[in-house]
Design goal:
Elements (H helix, E strand, L loop, with lengths): L7 E2 L6 E2 L4 H11 L3 E5 L5 E6 H11 L12 H4 L8 E2 L4 H8 L4 E5 L5 E6 H19 L1
Parallel strand pairs: 2-3, 5-6
Antiparallel strand pairs: 1-7, 3-4, 6-7
């Protein structure tokens, strides 16, 4: 399977930089309404993913929703490192299916760990349903 077939490229993906502030992250989450967003380094390497839960835990730890306060914290300080691991651009369909069951999207990186984009659960389901439909029409 060629992941590039249904990859949402980096240019069309939403992401944060690990050096951005928690306030910037909160604003991006609010605007786009996602539950998790990839996080990159300044050089474009995949750093991890940050989730709504990471922000919630941070808000509870700081005890305030004052956005000015959250300008002092960086995204890299609040995220879990083991959340939403990436796959390489040459990953198998089995690898994608295994990961996509656990999360809404799978980050895709190249062999240098540079972020290429994401594969969404919606795109995988669409691909599989098209395969099933093709098989069904050839059997009739």
């Amino acid at each position: 399977m060629n992941i590039a077939k249904f990859l949402t490229p980096k240019a069309n993906s939403i992401y944060l930089l690990e050096s951005q502030t928690v306030r910037q992250g909160l604003e991006k989450f609010k605007y786009h309404g996602y539950t998790a967003i990839p996080v990159l380094t300044e050089s474009g390497e995949f750093y991890g993913c940050v989730s709504e839960g990471d922000f919630l835990r941070h808000l509870l730890q700081t005890g305030t929703v004052d956005l000015k306060v959250h300008e002092r914290y960086k995204i890299r300080e609040i995220m879990r490192q083991d959340f939403c691991p990436p796959l390489t651009i040459v990953a198998s369909l089995e690898d994608v299916l295994e990961q996509i069951q656990k999360q809404n999207f799978v980050p895709i990186v190249d062999d240098r760990n540079c972020f290429c984009g994401i594969v969404t659960r919606r795109d995988v389901i669409k691909y599989l349903s098209e395969l099933a439909f093709q098989k069904e029409t050839t059997e009739v």
